[in-house]
Write a structure and sequence with these properties.
Length: about 45
């Protein structure tokens, strides 16, 4: 069984900039971004 909390911890701790995007055609909404992504893009 997949441990959802463990997946979230790995996502947040990953050194690889990563984002999860919802395809709300014709626009796209960011659902989640990890710290590495925010650092790369200058987000907060």
């Amino acid at each position: 069984m997949i441990d959802r909390q463990k997946i979230i911890e790995i996502f947040k701790a990953s050194p690889t900039p990563t984002s999860i995007v919802s395809a709300d055609d014709p626009e796209f909404s960011f659902v989640q971004m990890n710290d590495a992504y925010l650092e790369m893009t200058g987000g907060n």
